[in-house]
Amino acid sequence: MGDGTAGDGTAGDGAAGPRYASLRALFALGVAAAFLLLTDLESLARHVDGRLLAAVLVAQGPLLLSIVFVAQRHAILLRDPPVPLVLAFKSIVLALGLNLVVPGRLSDLVKAS
Questions:
Q1: Rounded Cα–Cα distance for residues 53 and 97 (Å)
Q2: Which tens digits make up the pLDDT trace of 14-41?
Q3: Under 8 Å between Cβ of 94 and 74
């Protein structure tokens, strides 16, 4: 992961920021369009009720808090002095996302960098 100071395409690179923001927005629109085109919305509305949505929303707080605690632990264990919490949080979230698509937990290598 870059520290955003060397023009490496991370958030600190002023020229690359707007380009990546537009690519992210385009990707999000594509995912939303695919969801709307490929999902049977009537069936979805029959099976999803208010209690399920409330449970999903209530679970977001503890889930986010647990990821913050894991990131804090990771930041402390990685080196002395600890890595900034935001950088550790980003690496943990990236590794969790990659675990969904990369076989064999190879995404743990991302956490270490």
A1: 22
A2: 556 777 888 989 999 999 999 999 999 8
A3: no
> What residues contact residue 9 under an 8 Å CB cut-off, 6+ apart?
2, 16, 20
CB 73 within 8 A of CB 65: no
Q: What percent of the chain has pLDDT over 90?
A: 35
Burial 59-79 (b: 16+ CB within 10 A, else e): eeeeeeeeeeebbbebbeeee
How much of the chain is helix, strand and coil, in % rounded to 5? Answer: 75, 0, 25
| Residues contacting residue 91 through CB under 8 Å, at least 6 positions apart | 1, 71, 74, 110, 111, 113
Query: Where do the domains of the chain lie?
Result: 1-47, 48-113
8 and 2 Cβ atoms separated by less than 8 Å: yes
Per-residue model confidence (pLDDT) at position 107: 76
pLDDT in tens, 86-100: 988 998 998 888 888
